């Protein structure tokens, strides 16, 4: 990994997500910029975190795609989530140092990183920012709840369509254009590992959606052809992806502590 000091731009995906909460002020964003002053460029197919290792740094995905996963002794893998720009890796490593998951890049990825212990210093100086980062982690838990439901109870085609629509909505929420949100750098092997299917079953399911002209595979990418019909196919409810502004009583409490 190549590390270079580069200021974070005001419109990074993480800034966009924090601005939606509407309670971080200029000093909080300045603290965030100071925290994320370096960049690490990581090639596709590389580990960021290995299962079982101690984590010293918290990472923020600035660009690119990665996966968080767990593996079995026989080599099988379950992808727990896809990490997109603005997502945080290891927010709680200051308390939970040992990684019980792995992180691997799907595409070239740009990361910013900071020592996990830095979050403790921020808690006293910028409580709003620390609360906001915790709020985003809570959003991640909601996505994980939906993922468990998706894998455990949805049929194969419904399961795959639901994942596609979720990824589309997530990309739109962090500012990607519609065309960019329709192209995913995912193979059918990765899909199988994410959706709890065999590779053969994932291939068959994808081809069924392709026959209905909902998806296609072009130049190594999955392409969504009809978002609305995919959403109807899986009865997609975006409520778990919504990120409302913090309630007034939270604003008041954080204002007093600041």
Structure, briefly:
This protein has 258 residues and is of the alpha+beta class. Helix content is 44%, strand content 21%.
How are the SSEs ordered, and which strands pair?
Blueprint: E1 2-5, H1 13-21, H2 26-35, E2 38-42, E3 47-49, E4 57-63, E5 66-71, E6 77-83, E7 88-89, E8 102-105, E9 109-115, H3 118-125, H4 127-153, H5 156-173, H6 178-181, E10 183-184, H7 188-195, H8 199-211, E11 215-218, E12 221-224, H9 227-233, H10 248-257
Antiparallel strand pairs: 1-2, 2-9, 3-8, 4-7, 4-9, 5-6, 5-8, 10-12, 11-12
Derived from helix and strand composition plus strand pairing, the structural class reads alpha+beta
- Strand arrangement across the biggest beta sheet: 1-2-9-4-7
> How many H/I helical runs?
10
Low-confidence stretches: 1-10
End-to-end distance: 37 Å
SSE topology string? EHHEEEEEEEEHHHHEHHEEHH
Largest sheet data: 5 strands, antiparallel
CATH hierarchy, class of the domain at 1-140: Mainly Beta
- The amount of beta strand, in percent, is 15-25%
Over the alpha carbons, how many angstroms does the gyration radius reach?
Answer: 19 Å
What do we call the CATH homologous superfamily of the domain at 1-140?
A: Jelly Rolls
Helix content: 40-55%
- CATH architectural grouping of the domain at 1-140: Sandwich
Overall pLDDT score:
88
The CATH topology of the domain at 1-140 comes to: Jelly Rolls
Shape: globular
Number of DSSP E strands: 12
Structure, explained:
Strands 1-2-9-4-7 form a five-stranded antiparallel β-sheet, with no helix packed on it. It has a four-stranded antiparallel β-sheet with strand order 3-8-5-6. The chain has a three-stranded antiparallel β-sheet with strand order 10-12-11. The longest helix is centred in the middle third of the chain and has 27 residues, at 127-153. It has 258 residues and is of the alpha+beta class. Helix 3 crosses helix 4 and helix 7 packs across helix 8. A hairpin with a 2-residue loop joins strand 11 and strand 12. The protein has helices spanning 13-21, 26-35, 118-125, 127-153, 156-173, 178-181, 188-195, 199-211, 227-233, 248-257; strands at 2-5, 38-42, 47-49, 57-63, 66-71, 77-83, 88-89, 102-105, 109-115, 183-184, 215-218, 221-224. It has a domain at 1-140: Sandwich (Jelly Rolls). Residues 1-10 have low confidence and may be disordered.
């Amino acid at each position: 990994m190549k590390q270079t000091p580069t200021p974070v731009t005001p419109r990074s995906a993480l800034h966009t997500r924090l601005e939606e909460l509407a309670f971080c002020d200029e000093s909080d964003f300045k603290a965030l910029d100071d925290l994320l002053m370096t960049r690490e460029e990581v090639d596709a197919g590389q580990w960021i975190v290995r299962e079982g290792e101690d984590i010293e740094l918290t990472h923020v995905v600035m660009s690119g795609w990665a996966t968080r996963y767990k593996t079995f002794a026989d080599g099988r893998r379950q992808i727990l989530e896809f990490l997109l720009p603005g997502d945080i890796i290891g927010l709680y490593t200051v308390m939970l140092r040992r990684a019980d998951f792995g992180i691997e890049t799907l595409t070239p990825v740009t990361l910013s990183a900071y020592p996990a212990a830095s979050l403790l210093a921020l808690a006293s100086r910028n409580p709003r920012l620390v609360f906001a980062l915790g709020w985003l982690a809570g959003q991640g838990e909601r996505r994980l709840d939906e993922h468990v439901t998706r894998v455990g109870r949805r049929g194969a085609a419904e399961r795959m369509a639901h994942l596609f629509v979720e990824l589309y909505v997530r990309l739109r929420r962090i500012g990607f254009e519609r065309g960019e949100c329709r192209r995913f750098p995912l193979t059918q092997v990765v899909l199988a590992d994410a959706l709890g299917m065999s590779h053969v079953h994932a291939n068959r399911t994808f081809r069924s959606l392709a026959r209905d002209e909902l998806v296609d595979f072009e130049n190594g990418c999955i392409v969504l052809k009809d978002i609305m019909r995919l959403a109807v196919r899986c009865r997609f409810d975006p409520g778990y992806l919504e990120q409302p502004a913090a309630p007034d009583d939270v604003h008041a409490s954080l204002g007093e502590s600041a």
